């Protein structure tokens, strides 16, 4: 229906002829073709098309030949056909058609190489193995029709099966029978550039030789429509990089790059010209960009490059932003792999509310504020398989719906008006795919907290700029939202060695101009003696977190080397405890019969470990079990981890064994009841003291 009705004007005569022929064909013919289309290869064995649901597959295949959908294997596909044959088939052909002596025990790659070298199309075409195969030659027509339906290259009919099986989610409620293109020229232009872009990406990905369809920039056709222009711009950008890597003349490469509308391509063209001495023309280009900017990314580059290369400024804007950062934190090095989360915990320990937001917050506000426009029936172009809204894909929300956007911004110009709108949209559409943000239980709560503190006028200015150029302002947002008595501000967290990326510079500059306070916070790694630790030990019914359960938890909270709090409880695993486990731990079914289940103590465990580094001997065992218990009750558990086994190997190398029992014996640590949670936790804490003493005396560690 979608192709035959909504896309009728986009079909060339050959597409219309195929649609008519297929629609009027017998069921067995239709089923045979559809079954063949689910094969990736064009060369298909005839016997593999025999299915119970096809009443007469022989007639189906015959009619597909009549319609020229199937043909014998053509000579141009001969080598691909050989590569796809089975090893016995190749051996048979080599023995029958050549004088080559080949053994069936040779490996497949060797036999394929022999076949490609010695077999010829003429010698094989009379053999019965050749006659057992057909070639599907309708792909050029089908690929265009699938492109019209799915909007991208490489889509297959099995996506319908995946949808029906529930494997692939679609936006059924938003599906509208409206074509993506206004004219056939737009559709064909987009299709051609999409194909060439896919070919080029495949060549670059696998380091293959690439033969461009167009040998020069002058031969590249003009793009018809916004999507075609996007594909053309990316194609020229990647083609230019490919030519540069291949060592082609820089002037040719620069021309290709400059013809792309992608800002990174234009930046590369300018840098290339500067490197090759064309400095006067580059300066004129930079000044022209600054005088009439049409892209914030390119403007940021032009201002920075002009200042450094022509005005003798020694550092880049990105470097200056880091150097001029107003805030500097020293965090314990155990947080090296979770710097943003550790920064949030640092602020929370100071009594300051902080949330990790990054892009999610801004995309969520944007999506909910403009939901009535983005998903309005008149703009819901495409099919249920389209996740991203039309205006987001085309980056034209403001230009296509200026009046509606301005009306929505006016409606949300007050704090109460914005909150009402967000609540209404979230209530109406919760759980529906947007292609912009992901729903979660705390989403609306976080958005309303943000709206309660932010300057609404500044937020409106940001939303307007996102509507005007979503592709430029959809990422690069700061890591943290920080709420203080003085209001709200955002922080981009940068650890030692991190740099500010160009997209972050563009977005942070936009936020600042709009009136949103943003700063760079640098993080230095050190040893913090006041870092709280929680040393944990658990006893379980077995060794696998996914299958077994916890029977006992023992935890001690440690600050500056001193135990300040303890927590201990038996747990009912709701299953029998194996005898060998009871023999090891002393915990039996009777002891845990009246103990709480994990769900009943989950809040206590979460609160006790909050803001602490999770320490254990073989930490992944204890941490994995506790994380799995939280997962079972659909809760998230995430803490920084420290393993006393791994750290003791660094602090005290050369020991024969690093088991808890051997370490406690080696360092005269009391072990009152081995394999009981609290006793083992206290013993592991003594190891933590040794580890931290070593860390403090070896700060380069």
End-to-end separation: 67 Å
How many domains, as an integer? 4
| Morphology | globular
Helix content: 40-55%
Major sheet description: 5 strands, mixed
3D structure, described in words:
The protein has 701 residues and is an alpha/beta fold. The protein has 4 domains: 2-174, no CATH class; 187-311; 327-526, no CATH class; 533-697, Nucleotidyltransferase, domain 5 (2-Layer Sandwich), CATH 3.30.420.10. It has 35 helices and 13 strands. The strands form 3 sheets. A 5-stranded mixed sheet has the order 4-8-7-6-5. Helix 3 packs across helix 4 (57-66), helix 15 (263-275) packs antiparallel against helix 16 (279-291) and helix 25 (415-429) runs antiparallel to helix 26 (443-453). The longest helix is centred in the N-terminal third of the chain and has 22 residues, at 184-205. It is globular and about 85 Å long. The relative contact order is 0.06. The model has no long low-confidence stretch (mean pLDDT 89).
Describe the structure in brief.
With 701 residues, the protein is α/β, with parallel strands linked by helices.
Please describe the structure with a list of short key phrases separated by commas or semicolons.
35 helices, 52% helix, 701 residues, globular, 5-stranded mixed sheet, alpha/beta
Detail the topology: elements first, then pairings.
Elements: H1 2-6, H2 13-24, H3 27-37, E1 43-45, H4 57-66, E2 70-71, H5 78-84, H6 87-97, H7 108-118, H8 121-124, H9 128-131, E3 133-136, H10 139-150, H11 158-164, H12 184-205, H13 226-245, H14 250-259, H15 263-275, H16 279-291, H17 296-309, H18 317-323, E4 327-332, H19 339-349, E5 353-356, H20 358-369, H21 371-374, H22 390-394, H23 397-400, H24 402-411, H25 415-429, H26 443-453, H27 456-468, E6 480-484, E7 487-495, H28 502-514, E8 518-526, E9 533-540, E10 550-559, E11 562-570, H29 579-585, H30 589-592, H31 598-609, E12 613-616, H32 619-632, E13 640-643, H33 644-651, H34 660-666, H35 677-697
Parallel strand pairs: 4-8, 7-8, 9-12, 12-13
Antiparallel strand pairs: 1-3, 2-3, 5-6, 6-7, 9-10, 10-11
Helix pairs in contact: 3-4, 6-7, 12-13, 13-14, 14-15, 15-16, 15-17, 16-17, 17-28, 25-26, 33-35
